Amino acid sequence: MSRRLSVAVERFPIAGAFTIARGSRTEAVVVTATIEDGDIRGRGECVPYARYGESVESVAAAIEAQAEWLANGGARSDLFERLGPGAARNAIDCALWDFEAKRQGRPAWAIAGLSEPGPVTTAYTLSLGAPEAMEESARNAAHRPLLKVKLGGEGDPERIAAVRRGAPDARLIVDANEAWRADTIEANLAACAAAGVALIEQPLPAGEDDLLADISRRIPICADESLHDRAGLDALAKRYDAINIKLDKAGGLTEAIRLAHEARARGFEIMVGCMVGTSLAMAPAMLIAHHAAYVDLDGPLLLAQDREPALRYEGSIVHPPLAELWG
Questions:
Q1: Is there a domain that residue 110 lies in?
Q2: Is 262 annotated as a binding residue?
């Protein structure tokens, strides 16, 4: 076996802008790893995230550093000894899953010993903005059954009330992206309860979320920035009711499968989430999405143009990938 690794940085424009508490952007910048041997080709896509100390350049370099190891037959089971959780390991891990599926002529879910994935309903994200703008966005998306609402701190009770007015029948998830504080969390929780919110994602900064163990709440709280892989599960006890599994945080599908299994054993509900990327990044996550209580794999829906071939979206229903895309 003499596998060749190539790394590409690709840019996909976002439809409009994507805004959260930490800033706004108009394009998705992804790093793609491709592993080839003859006619067999496996691909994996990742999204570097500055919040976790990553840049496009650092992630691309970390992937390229594994070229010799991969050429010499490096196994996916040994990847954990070479790279920690994060985007670089995700790209290589998913490329190796895709490569193995193509080599064996079997779907990745079967190789992993998982059940065959089916269509799932994904959340659709509403960017952070002024209440009136978010109400308009909610009205335009009110036909979707599940909306994920980006919040940002000051003014959030007005924002969530505006979204509920715009989409009176949709199920709502809110994501504060660590923007709430001890002196605002009670008012924000009350506003979410009044709006009938189903789940609140990462309200407080990671490392400053001990308060969650002591407050009473009627709405489940989901960890995102506070959890990357299995090593962080024990620290979440009494603070969180659910976890958001993102392959870019966990460092690939291999860890995501293990994380989902151990989290369920501890009684956590599962959300399967994503960064803003293309269908190639969403495809591996589909293998665990059909067992999740919440699915947030809407990255391609936020893009002005996806890659081809792409996942098939019918409204908010996303279908498992065809082999031509991944796995």
A1: no
A2: no
User: Is the pTM for the entire model greater than 0.90?
Assistant: yes
Q: Is 201 annotated as ligand-binding?
A: yes
Q: What digits encode the pLDDT tens for the residues 4-37?
A: 999 999 999 999 878 787 777 889 999 999 999 9
175 is in an annotated binding site: yes
Q: What span, in angstroms and rounded, lies between the C-alpha atoms of 288 and 274? A: 13
Residue 326 belongs to a domain:
no
Q: How many domains does the chain have?
A: 2
Together in a domain, 36 and 152: no
249 is catalytic: no
Range of the domain at 253: 120-318
Q: Are 64 and 198 within one domain?
A: no
Q: 102, 148, 150, 249: which is the annotated catalytic residue?
A: 150
Question: Where in the chain does DSSP place strands (E)?
Answer: 4-20, 23-37, 40-46, 120-121, 124-126, 146-150, 171-175, 199-201, 221-223, 242-245, 269-272, 294-295, 313-314, 317-318
Is 246 in the active site? yes
